[in-house]
Amino acid sequence: MSRSAVFLDEMGIGPLWRLRQGAAPELQEVIEAAPEPIVPVVQAMPEIARVVEVAETVPPPAVVAPAAVPPAPVALPVAEDTAWFDDAPAPPAAQPVTDAEIAAMDWDSLAGAVAKCTRCDLCKSRKGVVMGRGNRQADWLMLASSPSRLEEREQRALPGDQGKLLDNMLKAIDLDTGRDTYVTHLLKCRPLDEAGQERLPTQAESAACRPYFERELALLQPRTIVTLGSMAAAGMMPTEKPVRGKVRQLGAMSLIATFHPEALLQDDTGRAKARAWADLCLAKSTHG
């Protein structure tokens, strides 16, 4: 089918009939006799034919791709206004545990309470707490005064070289540190001054931390306590001057004072080590 026929068919006109020479009178008669709706269409056929002939000579328009339309900007979700939160009251600070609460704790509860303790101002400057280590059913207690910088950093009682020296000292009297002893401090936090230097604990700090040690002592129930250093000895015997080489009784527990392993590491003469050996031998013989 030609393009002309297609155009006419789409327009609902049907086949295009071209007039021959001399046929005009007959066509005029047909037009006059045709129903009124058909007359305009038949009269317009010559003009339609000319339009179709011109259309056949015009090339089809080039297909132009639609211009790329940039995507509409997507509105970002508006952040929820939380300015009101800045004005909300701070949650109440955790209340310090009482002496009575500490006295009823088991080992795990005691360790948790020490880790979160707020009973004195040392909780504001500490970088860690140091709970005791070793056998919680041991007969021997090795007691120091307060943690050092290394102990605070590692959160372990007597680590490093001082711990190795203590292990060797106890091995010399047939004791294993992990199996036969429990090692702890009177204080669980490291006391520091305003310049960040180690200092002696205040009376208030010692009193605040004392219930923790007393609970350790009640749970452990050792037979022999060896204090490491003069401060630990003074903490256990506040009413008298600590004396090495002498056994004191604390209820059913025997108390013997000796040097701290850190002091022995700094002893270049060997005299302190010899005295410490004598102290351990005294403790061993007392313990039986």
Task: Characterize the structure shown.
The chain is an alpha/beta fold and 288 residues long. The protein folds into two domains: 3-46, no CATH class; 99-287, Uracil-DNA Glycosylase, subunit E (3-Layer(aba) Sandwich). Residues 37-42 have low confidence and may be disordered. 43% of the residues lie in helices and 9% in strands. The protein has a six-stranded mixed β-sheet with strand order 1-3-2-4-6-5. The chain has helices at residues 3-10, 24-33, 39-57, 83-86, 99-103, 107-115, 149-154, 160-171, 177-180, 203-220, 230-236, 261-265, 271-287; strands at residues 133-134, 140-144, 181-185, 224-228, 248-250, 253-258. The N and C termini lie far apart (125 Å). It is built from 13 helices and six strands. It is elongated, with a radius of gyration of 52 Å. A hairpin with a 2-residue loop joins strand 5 (248-250) and strand 6 (253-258).
Tags for this entry?
single chain, 288 residues, alpha/beta, Uracil-DNA Glycosylase, subunit E, 2 domains, six-stranded mixed β-sheet, elongated
In short:
With 288 residues, the chain is of the alpha/beta class. The protein contains 13 helices and six strands. It has a six-stranded mixed beta sheet with strand order 1-3-2-4-6-5.
Mean residue pLDDT: 82
**Strand fraction band?**
5-15%
Largest beta-sheet details: 6 strands, mixed
Helix content: 40-55%
Count helical runs: 13
Radius of gyration, in angstroms, nearest whole number? 52 Å
CATH fold-level assignment of the largest domain: Uracil-DNA Glycosylase, subunit E
Total separate domains: 2
Corresponding CATH architecture of the largest domain: 3-Layer(aba) Sandwich
Described by the principal axes of the CA atoms, the overall outline is elongated
Q: What is the name of the CATH class of the largest domain?
A: Alpha Beta
